[in-house]
Amino acid sequence: MATELSSFAELKKAPVAPAPAAIREKEIDAQGRAYATGRRKNAVARVWVKPGTGKIVINGRDQQVYFARPTQQMVIQQPFDVSQRGGQFDVIATVSGGGLSGQAGAVRHGIAQALAKFEPDLRGAMKTNGFLTRDSRVVERKKYGRAGARRRFQFSKR
């Protein structure tokens, strides 16, 4: 057993060994894919990532067809740009709920998590850029007696 300590002063002076960092393992399924779930606003994306040519399919359609806006396509490409893995992985995603902006954010979140599972060394780069953190901001609910969440009805003096 470890050495016995008889006072708090000895406890303060006792050397503390740092806890070893958990070594993450590669998490892939039988088909060689990494799976992750991404969320943003009310959108939920189920994402599978596997080695390939850089093809991104969302709900059975190509990325350029599903997300027509260049900003949404850029959002999806961010995890690959940060990890310098552009064109090395194929992505298959099914996304539901929310609007297109929330869906693009959900797919980005899912891609980043799946890449971190496929290559655990990329986790640090993804984490520093904030791609692994779920953005918890959602629309505030409408309250009774109000026109919206916070807006009041127009005041009429007479």
Topology:
Blueprint: H1 8-13, E1 34-40, E2 43-51, E3 56-58, E4 61-62, H2 63-66, H3 70-83, E5 89-96, H4 100-118, H5 123-128
Parallel strand pairs: 3-5
Antiparallel strand pairs: 1-2, 2-5, 3-4
Question: Could you characterize the architecture of this molecule?
Answer:
The chain has 158 residues and is of the alpha+beta class. It contains 5 helices and 5 strands; from the N terminus they run αββββααβαα. It has helices at 8-13, 63-66, 70-83, 100-118, 123-128, and strands spanning 34-40, 43-51, 56-58, 61-62, 89-96. β1 (34-40) and β2 (43-51) form a beta hairpin. α3 packs parallel to α4. It is flat and about 80 Å long. The model has no long low-confidence stretch (mean pLDDT 90).
